[in-house]
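FIELD: query
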Amino acid sequence: MQLNLHISKKSSNFAADLLDMAQKNDIVKADSASMQPLENIENLIHIIRGKQVMLDRDLARLYGVETSRLNEQVKRNIERFPEDFMFRLTREEAESSRSQIAMLNGRGHNIKHLPYAFTENGVAMLSGVLRSPQAVSMNIQIMRAFNAMRHFLASNAQVFHRLEVIEHTQLSLVARQETTDKKLEEVFRRLDEGEATPKEAIFYNGQFFEARVLLEQIIKIAKSRVIIIDAYVDAATFEMLDVRAKGVKADIYSGKNLSNMQKLHNSSSGLEPIDAHVWKNPSHDRWLIIDDTVYHCGHSLKDMGQKLCAIAKLGVDADDILKKIR
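FIELD: result
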């Protein structure tokens, strides 16, 4: 399945605007013969090292400048681009990205220089480096593409999780030199029986997206109720509950009054209203209750994956937990 993201507004004098941008920032305008037509931005977003990134050559084409000139401007401001904003691809990664592009639009690129990859934060920083209205305008479109891609991946989390389980199983097969067909058959059997649902997971610094996908996948399992017990709740916590099935009740217990946030969210949600409560007895830890199953969360749900943390399924009575805080 492919998203259909398009640049929503194209100016008739777009080439003139890009030339003006180049002149203001001492970046040479790319030769018109070498320029390629703008394409769906989501096709330019790759998953590399577990992160959504765009490559320097694609960004340069969108901005209408030579790749070398864009990178020169970045190097002049290198202190603004730490490793989690920008990194250089290995040859293997570059070859993989080239293969993806060839499959998407039928054309490849000869790799003469290993490209730089920019994360969403890195792309956002580019608008400040280029300092032009055109760069800001283009970055808005790119940010929307990143956001839409996140929603797409989150809504298909279960499919991607199955693919990941199969991939890890295949790697294990190679290591053990076992028969692929036999092991794949076992994987599919376990998936169909629901045994592949993770009982615990560890997230490292910066794995916010991966944590969010897993949390939403767990919430989708609920058949009757979802309960969040968390001292640090914001709009993102409420939004996370929007993936639950219709008819599933949702409650949030926290240490502060969330009535205004609750009313605002419920007014725009088509699901069962979320009830927010101020607990009587504080909880130091964070908890996620799915029906009668309890998950212990090592970080506030809204921030899971920002730092090293974990989530684990516990074999405890959910109502016992609720009695302690109500």
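FIELD: remark
The two ends are 45 Å apart (CA to CA).
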